[in-house]
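Exercise 7. Given the encoded structure of a 553-residue chain, write a plausible sequence.
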């Protein structure tokens, strides 16, 4: 279907999405979105039919996390919209950019208790955009939402009434979504939307700095000139650079990979948050590992340093623990916007200039310079952790591991040495059970669309897998090459026992080759079979229950 000469809004909308290189949309069909759904089917956009709307949101989330671009999902009104709530909330808490198109009855029926008609603002965790009537500015509204979601790193709903799709629209569909912050800031200022401009900077508050009211407008070099005059910075003898996922900025995937090499030149030690792991290889002597509730070794150095330079971390509860009040006074936030890879190079160079005379690395014992020191916290390996360890050692080092929520996530985090960014993707703020499988599908499509040549490994517990297990049908239908792990300990953590189905037969019923693994000695052989194959494989790994190592509080 060629929409280039369309006079209807739906045709203009499809043309706009194609023009802006939106390659994949995750959707479940319904009456109130039927014109949009049919138009996508006949476009160049890859329409992925999911089996539950919650999964559509998680897939869009996974797509966004691996590509650092905006994921898109489409669901109908009423129950279709309510079903994506958990997926949208998960993306909101983890700062993931997704745009959710939702359906609505024709505008004349709004407020009349029409079929599937409910107030739609329950999805506006960040904000929502509502299109009820024909308007030549509607496409511009869609463009603005994509930009807000991209720069805010938040999910935003676009709710469109059914009557709008086939309405006449005279606007141009050749509107380009800007992905450069400076261009976006200029647009905001020209449209007198200073409030939005301030919101964009909300996660870049400055601590421990005086006269920084206008620092957000400074160029990077000017900003560091200001930073050099900070008393805490001037007196620091033992600084640490804390990196969070905000360092990804507006960079694309290939640019994010380049950060890995640039940080090797850092003259001060680096610690990372959980989602930023691998931004510098954890085998690099500059990297002290991950901080937070599962940080262990890196936490000790964070407590003993005299300055923490924060680049891209929101300093959440999982990163800066409640008991670390004294640490907060050591933090200086870098208030810079990252538009391209040269910005990262400039930041590293400026940090090195400030701390050029600090011979810090003599303070650190080389044996403990990577995250594997965390393993010392597990005094005795149990059956569960041994099998996770064997699995991690059997898959390629550059694999993208997508976990669900549960014990397997903790053990995976402890055993995995992340050498590249995006090595582990988890629901780290919400701990959403049922996240893993659909998110991994979204990650896989992101890899396909952006030519990312890394294996996608999905690790689940036997509790979480059942919450979105229907998406095995999506994997099978599209023959997605993914390794799907189910850690079967027949236990829901400390809460209760689980009565499990026969996962091998269940996987085969969906049309996916499935194997039962009882011994850790079988794992490597099964992984190799998957790597040599061309399709998905489910490994059901039977294991005994095992208590987790105690986290820091």
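Solution.
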């Amino acid at each position: 279907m060629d929409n280039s000469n369309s006079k209807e809004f739906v045709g203009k909308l499809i043309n706009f999405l194609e023009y802006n290189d939106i390659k994949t949309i995750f959707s479940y069909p319904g009456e109130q979105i039927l014109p949009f759904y049919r138009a996508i089917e006949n476009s160049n956009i890859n329409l992925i039919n999911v089996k539950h709307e919650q999964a559509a949101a998680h897939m869009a989330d996974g797509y966004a996390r691996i590509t650092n671009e905006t994921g898109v999902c489409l669901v109908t009104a009423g129950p279709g919209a309510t079903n994506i709530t958990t997926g949208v909330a998960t993306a909101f808490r983890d700062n993931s950019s997704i745009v959710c198109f939702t359906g609505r009855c024709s505008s004349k029926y709004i407020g009349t208790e029409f079929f599937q008609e409910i107030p739609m603002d329950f999805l506006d965790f960040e904000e929502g955009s509502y299109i009820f009537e024909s308007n030549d500015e509607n496409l511009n509204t869609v463009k603005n939402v994509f930009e807000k979601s991209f720069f805010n790193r938040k999910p935003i709903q676009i709710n469109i009434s059914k009557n709008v799709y086939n309405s006449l629209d005279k606007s141009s569909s050749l509107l380009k979504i800007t992905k450069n912050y400076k261009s976006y800031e200029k647009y905001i200022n020209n449209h007198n939307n200073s409030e939005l401009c301030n919101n964009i900077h909300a996660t870049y508050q400055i601590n421990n700095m005086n006269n920084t009211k206008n620092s957000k407008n400074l160029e990077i070099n000017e900003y560091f000139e200001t930073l050099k005059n900070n008393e805490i910075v001037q007196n620091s003898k033992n600084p640490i650079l804390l990196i969070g996922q905000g360092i990804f900025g507006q960079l694309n995937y290939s640019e994010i990979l380049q950060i890995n090499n640039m940080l090797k030149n850092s003259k001060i030690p680096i610690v990372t948050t959980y989602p930023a792991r691998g931004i510098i290889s954890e085998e690099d002597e500059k990297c002290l590992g991950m901080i937070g509730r599962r940080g262990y070794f890196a936490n000790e150095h964070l407590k003993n340093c005299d300055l923490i330079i924060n680049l891209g971390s929101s300093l959440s509860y999982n990163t800066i623990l409640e008991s670390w009040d004294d640490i907060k006074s050591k933090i200086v936030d870098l208030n810079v916007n990252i538009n391209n890879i040269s910005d990262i190079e400039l930041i590293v160079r400026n940090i090195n200039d400030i701390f050029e005379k600090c011979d810090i690395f003599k303070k650190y014992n080389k044996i403990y310079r990577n995250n594997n020191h965390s393993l010392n916290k597990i005094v005795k390996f149990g059956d569960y952790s041994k099998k996770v360890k064997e699995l991690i050692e059997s898959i390629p080092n550059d694999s993208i591991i997508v976990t669900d929520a549960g014990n397997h996530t903790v053990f995976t985090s402890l055993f995995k040495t992340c050498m590249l960014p995006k090595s582990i993707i988890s629901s780290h703020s919400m701990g959403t059970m049922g996240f893993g499988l659909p998110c991994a599908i979204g990650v896989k499509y992101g890899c396909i669309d952006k030519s990312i040549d890394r294996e996608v490994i999905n690790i689940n517990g036997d509790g979480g897998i059942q919450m979105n297990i229907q998406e095995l049908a999506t994997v099978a239908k599209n023959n997605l090459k993914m390794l799907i792990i189910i850690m079967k300990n027949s236990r829901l953590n400390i809460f209760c026992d689980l009565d499990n189905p026969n996962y091998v037969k269940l996987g085969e019923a969906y049309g996916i080759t499935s194997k039962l693994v009882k011994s850790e000695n079988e794992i490597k052989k099964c992984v190799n079979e998957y790597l040599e194959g061309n399709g998905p494989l489910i490994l059901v790994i039977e294991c005994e229950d095992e208590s987790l190592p105690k986290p820091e509080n």
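Remark. Confidence is low (pLDDT under 50) at residues 191-217, 365-374. Students should compare their own answers with the one above.
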